[in-house]
Amino acid sequence: MPFGEVVCGAPGSGKSTYCYGKHQLFTAFQRPISIVNLDPANDSLPYPCAIDISELITLHDVMDKFGLGPNGAMLYCMEYLEANYDWLEEKLKDLGGDAYVLFDLPGQVELSTNHESVKHIVEKLTKSGFRLAAVHLCDAHYITDASKYISILLLSLRAMLQLELPHINVLSKIDLLGQYGDLEFNLDFYTEVQDLSYLANSLSSSLPPRFAALNIALISLVEDFSLVGFETLAVEDKSSMLNLTRAIDRANGYVFIPKPVPGNPSGPPGTVNAPNLPPSARPNTYALFSSAAGPLKGPGAHARDIQERWIDEKEAYDAFEKREWRKEGEMIRDAEARRKAAEEVAKKKEGTERQRGGIRIRERKDPQKDRLHNQMDVSEG
Ligand SMILES: Nc1nc2c(ncn2[C@@H]2O[C@H](COP(=O)(O)OP(=O)(O)O)[C@@H](O)[C@H]2O)c(=O)[nH]1
Ligand SMILES: [Mg+2]
């Protein structure tokens, strides 16, 4: 059963970097992963790409051929991909039934908010058996300004309603947030989208008074849907990537698939085999569902920890991590030196043994000669 993520968000929000980071993380964990580049304007891809839309169509070709600008050409490319979905389907089949696929989308927001082609492609993928989640990246610095925050809330909400997938909104580049000065509220206010009426004051101070009613209307629109919340991401931080991965695994259902255990096809340790019972009565189901639906635990799982790590105590944490990396580097260097020294000793020992073995062979070589020697000794004596 193939799983996947539709990675969308504005240009520069970090989509391609996230795909590359996830590829590195999953490769280290030996989890399957393939990346499909669906951005025909992506000239230099940072990640190893399994399927590249530029084999089908490129932005430059469309611009040259039809005299379109970059935005029009991008819409044409997506419509062309939709019309030639068979091409994508064939290539995806080659990745196998257990593939985990990241779809790196172009940055034009209208593709995931109002244009229909991406929506139709996603529908076709879902029909063909893909379990997908949308991962919508928004640059975290937008939360430093109330009106920009409202605009990313609306954008995220619109993408959720348009794509109709399990949806994870992400504040990306959270490691840079400390650079933009103090936040008006704690980070969890923004990630959990708490009582937005607190923003009304900030909004009315930065906009003319005639917008006050509109601001209130926008705020209550977001609150009425009560759909938007944010995870956070600093792509180079392992625990941040792991927390996001757990949230996405829950959204697309990957967490419900027991991990294969080498040599044990019946499942992970402790699995009780009861295939004849209905699914809801199988003894493993409760454990599986309660761990999948329970709260996320571990370092950096809560917005308070993230605020401490990246905003309040960033310098102290950075210095601590540097010290830990240095220690780890020294340990690796020491271990390498010890390994080399042990190799040298083993080599020397092997050399001496070979020498000794050679003497023994010479000693044993000619017993007849020895007997003659002995006889000569006896006769001389
Ligand atoms: N500091 C920081 N920079 C990031 C992060 N993610 C992406 N970037 C940078 O943001 C820029 C745009 O990223 P890119 O992946 O090309 O964005 P895309 O247009 O959405 O694909 C690049 O310079 C990345 O190095 C992050 O988590 N932290
Ligand atoms: Mg990109």
TrEMBL record:
GO MF assignments: GTP binding; GTPase activity
Coiled-coil regions listed: none
Region (Disordered): 333-381
CDD domains: GPN2
Keywords in alphabetical order: GTP-binding, Hydrolase, Nucleotide-binding
Pfam families (UniProt xref): ATP_bind_1
UniProt cross-references to SUPFAM superfamilies, sorted A to Z: P-loop containing nucleoside triphosphate hydrolases
Basic and acidic residues: bias regions: 333-374
A cellular component term, taken from the record's GO annotations: cytoplasm
Source organism, top-level taxon: Eukaryota
Protein family: Belongs to the GPN-loop GTPase family.
Subunit structure: Binds to RNA polymerase II (RNAPII).
PANTHER family reported in the protein's UniProt record: GPN-LOOP GTPASE 2 (PTHR21231:SF3), XPA-BINDING PROTEIN 1-RELATED (PTHR21231)
Function per UniProt: Small GTPase required for proper localization of RNA polymerase II and III (RNAPII and RNAPIII). May act at an RNAP assembly step prior to nuclear import.
Name by which UniProt lists this protein: GPN-loop GTPase 2
Natural source organism: Cyclocybe aegerita (Black poplar mushroom)
Lineage: Eukaryota, Fungi, Dikarya, Basidiomycota, Agaricomycotina
